[in-house]
Amino acid sequence: FCNYWQAVKPLLQERTKRKIQVLQGSGKDELLKIMDYSSLPHFCRKEGSGSTRHSSNGTADNCFSLDHTYHQQLYTYIKHQATHKETNSPIKHGSVHVEFPEPDPDDTAIALTIESELHKLADQNGLCKSLNGLKVNGV
Which residues form a coiled coil (predicted)? Predict the structure, then answer.
């Protein structure tokens, strides 16, 4: 957390920084000064709690650790599933045909009318070159 705090701290306003107090280690000692032991969060109640805590039996007690039982079981399951997969090469799906609808003749006529009217207006206002090559809806 300290690394995150050092990265974020310069981005905060001074009044916001004054409202935040970063506790050392697990913060258990500082929290016990202002609250009862029974009110402590569960992760502060354990002995030796901190960023690299382990339970008394030697296994990792941090659920975010890759050594946690859940992650080990998940890795074993995925590895087991991968060994039973039939193929290791990409599956060929073949080609796909997509049909495009034909444009409506009325829409084409409208687009051509708009295009010709714009060219007429351009000719009247002396804008011939600026509208040269103008197409409406690609028509």
Answer: none
Query: For each of the chain's 139 residues, which pLDDT tens digit applies?
Result: 677 778 888 888 899 988 887 777 667 777 788 888 888 777 676 665 444 444 444 444 667 677 778 888 888 888 888 777 766 666 677 777 778 778 777 777 888 888 888 878 777 766 555 555 666 565 5
